[in-house]
Every structure is written in C-alpha cells, then in structure tokens.
C-alpha cells in the first residue's frame, strides 16, 4: 500500500510564498478555461472539494453566466472515523448541506446549478473506479470542460476521481483539467513531482478570496475534530491558509 503523504502540518505557507516555480506560472483567465458555449463540470470527491479546489473559478464562471454541473462523488461520510459526535450517518446528511450553503456563499445561482450526488463510498472510490468512469461519462457532452482533482494529489479518492474524470472526458470527447488540493500539503516549493509545465495560475482578487474563505467556513464538520477520541479537524487553519491564496492552480 502506498504511504499516506497527508500527515503532520505539511509545507508551511511561507515556503510556498517563496516558491520560484509557483511565482513564475503563466496566468490564465476563466473565459479561456471555459470558453463561450462550454459548460464547466466540477467533479468533487467529497463535499467541500469543489470549493477548496476551485471556489474562485466557480465565482468567475458564475459571473460569465457559464453553465455549471457539479458531481459530488461521495457524501464524505468517512471523514471522522470512530466518532460518536460525527458518525457516518450524520455526516452523509450534513456534508451535502454544508456544500449547498458554501455554494450559496460563493454567490452561485443554486436555482439553475446542476448538481448530482454519486453516492459512492467515501475512502473507497478506487475500488469502484470503472463504475465511476461510466457514471461520469453518462453526464458529459463533447463541449464540456471537466475539472477533477489531480490523479497524484495524495488522497486515494482524489486520485481515483482524477483518473476516472480523465477517462470519462476522453470517452466523451470533452476537455479535462486537474486541480491540486492536498498537493500543497505534501509537496515542496520546487517539487519536480508537480507537473509545472501543465500548470496555470488563475488570479483571484481580494473579494473573491474573502467569499471563498466565507464559503469554506460553511463546512463546520471539517473544521471540527473529535477531542474525545483524539481526532484532529480535517481542515485546520494551516491547511486552509494554503488553500486560500489569491490564486488557484489548474493542470491543463
């Protein structure tokens, strides 16, 4: 089994702020990523990944009146293993509600947003990867631009979603891009494991970052651990600060 790279406090934000490779990334605009006439399809392994990975992009796309489809692969019910405060049954109901509130805080038009819940097993997506590929492909059109988590992001669900998203997009004739999320935790600032040649930086202004931060704080379950069993929060402050920089990165 591959060693879990998502341990400890990860790479400090200051290290990333000093990254030459990150600073030199070419810029890209939302209208270039999702041209007129295309729909954005965001594939989130868990409720919150759509905001953590591309909460700024979603704001920009809403401003451009682009069609948006969000596919939540799992309900995120395995985030607090062994917790009686946050049992799986509670999480499977609460986490999608948190996503709805977060998208509302981003200013997305929920009445016109397409949103599909896949119901796949949290932490077990890799075991259902072929079925997930078929599930995603069912909803895709050739003119879609698909955004999934990166296939080397460090979390097994994120990686399986990245592979399934790429396969489904290829089969449908759609465009596919990837979003690093946990990468900023385990990678180093000049890390050769990151596909820098494919990376583009989407700049966000202060208001967009503030809305993204407000949206992230809708995920109360992920901001809380369970002290009774020594369980730390999934999204402590040092994780959030890396994901709330004035840009988002997309691998083309």
TrEMBL record:
Q: What is this protein called?
A: Acetylglucosaminylphosphatidylinositol deacetylase
One GO MF term = hydrolase activity, acting on carbon-nitrogen (but not peptide) bonds, in linear amides
Question: Per its UniProt entry, which superkingdom is the organism in?
Answer: Bacteria
Organism annotation: Pseudomonas rhizosphaerae
Task: Please give the SUPFAM superfamilies that the UniProt record associates with this protein.
Answer: LmbE-like
| Pfam assignment, any one | PIG-L
Q: Which InterPro entries match?
A: GlcNAc_PI_deacetylase-related, LmbE-like_dom_sf
Membrane-spanning residues where? none
